Amino acid sequence: MITTEEVERCWISPPRGSVQPITLPLTYLDIPWLLFPPSQTIFFYSFPISTTCFIRKTLPRLKNSLSLTLHHFLPLAGRLVLSTKTGPYIEYAERDSIEMIIAEADGDPSSVKHHFTSLTEKSTKLVTDLHGLVPTLSPLIVPVSEEGSRYPLLALQTTIFPESGICIGFTLRHVVADGRTFNNFLKMWASIFTSGQDKYHELTEVVHDRSALLFGDGLRLRPIILKQWMEMDMSGFGPQSDSNKNEIMVRTTFVLGPKEIERVKKRILAQSCCLFGSARSLLVSPYIVVCALLWECWIKAQFSNAADADAVHSLGFIAGGITRFALNVPDTYVGNLVGFGRASSTRSHLMDRVNGVVFAAEAISETIKKLNENILIDAENWISEWKVLRESQLHLTVVWSPKMDLYNLNFGWQRPIKIEEVSIDTTGSISLFESRDAVGGIELGVALPRPKMEAFSALLARATE
Question: What is the H or E stretch that residue 182 is in?
Answer without folding.
Answer: helix 179-195
